[in-house]
Design brief:
This protein is an alpha+beta fold. The chain has one domain. It is about 50% helix and about 15% strand. The chain contains five helices and four strands. The longest helix has 13 residues. The mean pLDDT is about 95. InterPro entries: Malonyl_CoA_deC, Malonyl_CoA_deC_C, Malonyl_CoA_deC_C_sf. It holds the Pfam family MCD.
Length: about 100
Amino acid sequence: MRLCAWYLYGEKHRGYALNPVANFHLQNGSVMWRINWMADTSPRGIAASCGMMVNYRYFLEDTASNSAAYLGTKQIKASEQVLSLVSQFQQSSKL
């Protein structure tokens, strides 16, 4: 879960999220909301993402500012759950 959070939040390509689905949702103003363990246990889900899935949440009143922040300053809006997992990864990682 920590590695997944880091991949989605911290791994970048030209400053934007490396994952194309994350990049799409973030460009459209979403918040990286929740990472779900074993949410997709289909063979494809296990092979593609170890069964994990991510929820992106759209707060309509914030989508324009979130999108502008991401596109302008490459700032990713994320929930406390995601940020906590990112922090745990950073503390235990040797990267």
